[in-house]
Amino acid sequence: MKIVLASNNAGKLAELQAMLVPLGVTLVKQTELGIGGAEEPFRTFVENALAKARHASRASGLPALADDAGLCVDAFGGLPGVDTAFYATQFGYAKSDDNNVRALLEQMAGITARRAAMVSTLVAVRSAEDPEPLIAVGRVSGEIATEPRGSNGFGFDPVIFLPSFGKTFAELPVEVKNANSHRGMAAQQMMGLMRERWL
């Protein structure tokens, strides 16, 4: 089965392709089909992921899978949330992973309550009008480290410290990260849902 991935993020594509190998599905990035990004006007991960999946399916005529993920920091009332990718821009930095990390560490300076969670919401639709989208959510709680550590991964991985491992996501081997990350948890749930309802 061919499924269009409603994302232009190379890191997400690589992670999800590796995680979904057991299903035997082929993920095709929407840009390879000439499909631009969808509008993401909503304030929740699930609404944005659903909008992205429906957009990609409508434009391609294929089933679609979308991920909306982000960082939810307790000290900031759950923000940046759906605005995670653009976090640095509100502080005058250009949009980039490194600048997001820099801005987060600056905003967290002097804050001792550093609990946060990475959340991934995957939504899959058989068609643009699918009345029964598959929805899977993965959530990993941790703490914001005081400085970046590790070189694996992308996004906020260098500053998401996981007490259970004593390491940041970026310090974990890729296979360990994928098995224990928010996206990995959501992908496992999604595979179960696809096996049960689609395959």
UniProtKB/TrEMBL annotation:
GO terms for biological process: nucleotide metabolic process; purine nucleoside triphosphate catabolic process. The active site is at 68 (proton acceptor). It comes from the Bacteria. One of its GO terms (molecular function) is XTP diphosphatase activity. Pyrophosphatase that catalyzes the hydrolysis of nucleoside triphosphates to their monophosphate derivatives, with a high preference for the non-canonical purine nucleotides XTP (xanthosine triphosphate), dITP (deoxyinosine triphosphate) and ITP. Seems to function as a house-cleaning enzyme that removes non-canonical purine nucleotides from the nucleotide pool, thus preventing their incorporation into DNA/RNA and avoiding chromosomal lesions. Belongs to the HAM1 NTPase family. This is dITP/XTP pyrophosphatase. It comes from Polaromonas eurypsychrophila.
